[in-house]
Write a structure and sequence with these properties.
Layout (H helix, E strand, L loop, with lengths): L6 E5 L3 H12 L4 E4 L11 E4 L2 E4 L5 E2 L5 H10 L4 E5 L2 E5 L2 E5 L10 H17 L6 H9 L1 H16 L9 H4 L17 H12 L3 E5 L4 H13 L3 E3 L5 E5 L4 E6 L2 E10 L3 H7 L9 E12 L10 E3 L9 E3 L1 H5 L7 E9 L9 H14 L8 E14 L5 H10 L7 E3 L11 H17 L5
Parallel strand pairs: 1-2, 1-13, 2-10, 7-15, 13-19
Antiparallel strand pairs: 3-4, 5-9, 6-9, 7-8, 11-12, 12-13, 14-17, 14-18, 15-16, 16-17
Helix pairs in contact: 1-8, 1-13, 2-8, 2-13, 3-4, 4-5
Bound molecules: flavin-adenine dinucleotide (FAD).
């Protein structure tokens, strides 16, 4: 029999919240999932626009990774059809194209890059000195010249910050457990280093559900509901009713629900505000995603899943090409692209239409599509797309989470709940660990 003493309430129906919800519901807990949007998935949502399937956020799940998050996602997808592609992107700097993974490309780089890169590898393998900033981490692998010419403008465009001001963890993206303990040390010895280098030099395949990355979320949600979990979409404002150190109930959509545990996977800033915590705000970059479709299609499938454009002349930092995924499965006479624009003072005063118009002009400038071939556009903004990890981010993190520590049954996890720069498998892993923690926790009510 399902326990009826109160709910495990999960706020946020992204991959992290869905994973926790499903595992708890499967273990006969009374679950209530609250999602502010009209569908689940969070960033892991896909949609059809002008006959082309686009994703909002993630596209890449590596075929051969064997962490718990990846295995969980694959298991939940069951035997649905997936497409497999070699993962490749490029940084386009002026008239030069730097492909990642590099494969044999560095052999054709200018001599000064080549000499530094090979020199640095040798030094790194023999010394392994610790790095603090993104700048140091990249310089120690690829040398100063390559960093300055290629990576520095790339990072500036992606984040608005210079690599010297960003903590190395912004690049390394270490996992965090539900107590916010960092899981992966920056360097785990030479074996780890060699693995990292291998990933830069050899190609790996990614696999992708044929109806879009959002299929992972849809499948988990379906399993959650099948296991008896309840969902409220478009949930509206949530209020928390706490006594001293416990959250007793939540009020949402005009009803009050007694709470056993609250698993918060929405923004930690919002949670702190609901708790009236006078905390500092977790800093995030705001991004716009502009979806454009065009008449006409190039011959042959695109080589890159995305290209980065660090030069100042274009508004966007990155273009992603669904055609790299779909190839022959996509419409024959048109193509879609998605442009990522990170929030700069320059676009502060631009309307959404002005942003779209500037993108269409920049796409033509790059020689990608003529404006006369333009069909349709759509734009979304994501207020908290990437966390900003300054050099002192761990001190800031402590302060952000101080207020919540007071409550024995409130947990804040996931991409924005944990102020965590994580990929989907890591968000799922947090969801799994959260469910495991609740399932063995002594019931205090
Ligand atoms: C541009 C981009 C590209 C990425 N590419 C990849 C990739 O290729 N591969 C990969 O593995 N990862 C990628 N990631 C990371 C991946 O998207 C995330 O790690 C993962 O989707 C995070 O899941 P989550 O559940 O923690 O958060 P989210 O997906 O953000 O889910 C949070 C949910 O909470 C809901 N919510 C917010 N506020 C409230 C509220 N007040 N009440 C109720 N609900 C609320 C939101 O609507 C949302 O559904 C990418 C991320 C970005 C931004």
């Amino acid at each position: 029999m399902i326990e009826d003493m109160g709910y495990d309430v999960i706020v946020g129906g992204g991959l992290c919240g869905l994973t926790t919800g499903f595992l708890l519901a499967k273990n006969r807990r009374n679950c209530l999932l609250l999602e502010k949007g009209d569908d689940v998935g969070g960033l892991a949502r896909s949609f059809v626009f002008d006959d082309i399937i686009f994703d909002v956020g993630p596209h890449v799940l590596y075929e051969n990774d064997s962490d718990r998050g990846t295995l969980f996602l694959k298991k939940m997808l069951g035997d649905s059809e997936v497409i497999k592609r070699p993962f490749r992107y490029a940084i386009i700097s002026g008239d030069k194209i730097y492909k990642v993974p590099f494969m044999l490309e560095p052999l054709f780089y200018p001599w000064r890059f080549k000499a530094e890169i090979f020199g640095m590898f040798f030094k790194l393998i023999t010394s392994g000195a610790p790095e603090a900033s993104v700048c140091q981490a990249i310089e120690s692998r690829f040398g100063k010249s390559f960093y300055k010419s290629v990576f520095e403008p790339f990072i500036k465009k992606k984040t608005g910050y210079s690599g010297e001001k960003l903590h190395m963890d912004w690049l390394a993206r270490p996992g965090r457990d539900i107590n916010n303990i960092k899981k992966i040390p920056n360097r785990k010895g030479r074996a780890d280093l060699l693995k990292q280098l291998k990933n830069f030099f050899t190609s790996r395949d990614y696999e992708y559900p044929i109806k879009g990355y959002g299929e992972y979320a849809r499948h988990i949600h379906h399993a959650y509901q099948y296991a008896g979990g309840k969902t409220i979409l478009n949930c509206g404002h949530i209020s928390l009713n706490c006594s001293d150190s416990v959250l007793d109930s939540i009020s949402v959509s005009g009803k009050k629900y007694p709470v056993k545990n609250l698993v918060w996977t929405a923004s930690v800033n919002e949670l702190n505000s609901l708790l009236n915590a006078k905390s500092i705000i977790a800093p995030y970059i705001k991004s716009f995603y502009v979806f454009l479709t065009y008449n006409g299609k190039r011959n042959g499938q695109r080589e890159f899943l995305y290209t980065y454009h660090p030069q100042k002349e274009t508004l966007f930092a990155r273009i992603y090409y669904p055609d790299n995924i779909y190839g022959d499965y996509s419409p024959r006479h048109k193509e879609g692209i998605c442009l990522e624009i990170n929030h700069y003072p320059e676009i502060e005063n631009m309307t959404e239409q002005e942003i779209i118009d500037a993108c269409v002009r920049d796409v033509e400038k790059l020689g990608l599509f003529k404006s006369s071939k333009f069909r349709h556009s759509s734009i979304i903004s994501i207020k908290e797309s990437m966390p900003v990890y300054g050099l002192d981010y761990e001190v800031i993190m402590e302060k952000i989470f101080a207020a919540q520590k007071k409550y024995s049954n409130i947990y804040s996890i996931g991409r924005t709940g944990r102020f965590c720069f994580c990929m989907s498998p890591a968000a799922v892993e947090q969801g799994i660990e959260m469910a495991e923690h609740i399932l063995v926790k002594k019931n205090i009510f």
